[in-house]
Amino acid sequence: MTAAADTYAPTDRTVPTRSRERASYDKALVHSILDEGYVCHLGFVRDGAPVVLPTLYGRIGESLYVHGSTGSRPLRATGDGVKAPGLPVCLTVTHVDGLVLARSAFHHSLNYRSVVVHGTAHQVTDPEELRTALDALVDHVVPGRSADSRPANAKELAATAVIRLDLDEVSAKVRTGGPNDDAEDLGLPYWSGVVPVRAVNGTPVPADDLDPAVALPDYLSAP
Amino acid sequence: MTAAADTYAPTDRTVPTRSRERASYDKALVHSILDEGYVCHLGFVRDGAPVVLPTLYGRIGESLYVHGSTGSRPLRATGDGVKAPGLPVCLTVTHVDGLVLARSAFHHSLNYRSVVVHGTAHQVTDPEELRTALDALVDHVVPGRSADSRPANAKELAATAVIRLDLDEVSAKVRTGGPNDDAEDLGLPYWSGVVPVRAVNGTPVPADDLDPAVALPDYLSAP
């Protein structure tokens, strides 16, 4: 594998105007950030104004799939992927890893990992790709789950639209570590450091109507 | 207080095309969702294409404040708030509360709370409003922290831009509860229910250069 294949090529849109040292184009890093998130924030333009909606997504290789009803606004705008030009979108996934408390108000920050994807989304029309994408969406929420649930039937497939956004114009941005206080502030009497933040899963709660004979699957049990 | 003052007036942009029963215009609910988040996703249009960036924010009453460097792209686009028309934005905050596992792949979902704000952002130019907004940004990360850190000096204030977005065209969307499986699927042998998800703060980690004599403040101690 060549070095070029391991990274996304930077573009005007993916080189930040500030904190450039936090930017990365490493594919493995981008994939890991994407795979850890539950929702993305999908931006598109409607009537000249921006719209940002949270939505489920999944990843297969270098493609992201975003799920929705066939009646939803962004999905209708993408057209059928063959005749339509597609919908320009920006898809962003962010994890907050810590609260950074500096001596100075100015240097307060967050530790975070984010991925921003620019591109054009197309509606998935191939039946086989649609089924694969729906599996990826379910497995993104809980790995292994698509094989342990009832697959979509014809009626459900007809009511579901999925759009694909290829990973091409992509960047990650990561902040880690402690506060960056100015030297002259180090003696000030304010506590400084980082409060770690993380998302944790609680104990699974069975549905009210679950047959008690159905055991909690291994993929939901604590490791 | 009248009923009207407790809610935002729905508009074409804030009435969803689907799952309308999940939408709310209740100000108290919107405020609670906004106040719990650490980052928002700010969408704007650049060269005709959407851009979605994660960023810190704070709230004072019915105004949101978003922080950035004076050199950052969205902030430059807002102009000075007096001569410029402002920047159309969409600001979204989302909390994931649970993974909803249904018997059918189709009914998999997330429990979540989100707020979407449409409007026009203006750069804050009044020095007093700027200071107040910066305090709100710091206190949004850790309530009470702005009073326990060094306030911004003149140089820092000059390097900081803050934009204001008033809460006017706003909606919340909330999904709670268990899976909504179809009646004919209830007997399928798949576990169904909800895996709760929440963000938790870990033990604060002091900065490497923190004077050991500086104690952990009460607002960071476990309750």
UniProtKB/TrEMBL annotation, chains A, B:
At the top level of its lineage, which domain of life is listed? Bacteria
Q: Which residues form a coiled coil?
A: none
Entry-linked InterPro entries: Pyridox_Oxase-rel, Split_barrel_FMN-bd
Note one Pfam family from the annotation. Pyridox_ox_2
The segment annotated Disordered runs over 1-21
Q: What is this protein called?
A: Flavin-nucleotide-binding protein
